[in-house]
Amino acid sequence: MDLKRFRFLNNVAGWAVFAVAAIVYLMTIEPTASLWDCAEFIVCVNKLEIGHPPGAPFFMLVYNVVSHFTSDPAQVAWFANATSALASAFTILFLFWTITHLVRRMLVPLARNASGMEEPTRSISLAHVIAILGSGAVGALAYTFSDTFWFSAVEAEVYALSSFFTAAVFWLMLKWEERADNPRSDRWLVLIA
Q: How buried is residue 43: exposed, middle or buried, by Cβ count under 10 Å (0-12/13-18/19+)?
């Protein structure tokens, strides 16, 4: 199978895993404010106030924008919890792509081109494609349904957004590493920063 077709399948499989995570998390979100800090965060998000230290200012700004999509203040908690669910589902998407990238690097060796730079081989065997996509699906879905992550994914807490940014930055680092020898690859570093 050529690399272009593999990338297409990798994207489709990643979005399918995202859909599974998003549906499960949205079906199981807290309908209102749960215990712990979630109630404080929901109140602070709605009025754009400062929560307990350190305050989580970016979290407050993002969730405040989301809270404006409802005209009923009683729905702010549901919208905030749904935002955490979607941020967690995007974490699972980036985790899937990270796993498939790393497994592909282990299974499919890099080739050297005429100028001596390493580049991915042009074709991947069907067995490798199945192993790569299967590893990504198993790893991402295992994390999707892990108790600790699922617990944080369904409530308005800072962990979902933090996990999303961590997963996205790690995936971007792998994308940069793959393209580091190309001209203009520094733009990936700027995006990471």
A: middle
Q: What does each C-alpha distance from 31 to 25, 39, 45, 65, 77 come to in angstroms?
A: 12, 12, 16, 19, 7
Cα Rg of the chain (Å, integer): 20
Q: What per-residue confidence (pLDDT) applies to 99? A: 98
**pLDDT at site 101:** 95
Residue 76 · residue 45 · CB < 8 Å: yes
Task: Determine the Cα–Cα distance for residues 130 and 119; give it in Å rounded to an integer.
Answer: 21
The length of the chain is 193
Residue 110, strand partner residues: 120
Instruction: Give how far the C-alpha of residue 92 lies from the chain's centroid of Cα atoms, to the nearest Å.
Output: 5
H or E segment and range at residue 77: helix 76-107
Written as one letter, the residue type at 148 is: T
Quote the pLDDT of residue 20. Answer: 98
In 85-135, where do the E strands start and end?
A: 110-112, 118-120
Tell me what the pLDDT averaged over the chain comes to: 90
Q: Give every residue of the chain whose pLDDT is below 70, as ranges.
A: 110-121
What are the distances in angstroms from CA 175 to CA 41, 95, 99, 187, 193? Answer: 34, 13, 12, 11, 14
pLDDT number for residue 116: 59
Q: Residue ranges per domain, the chain?
A: 3-192
pLDDT at 124: 87
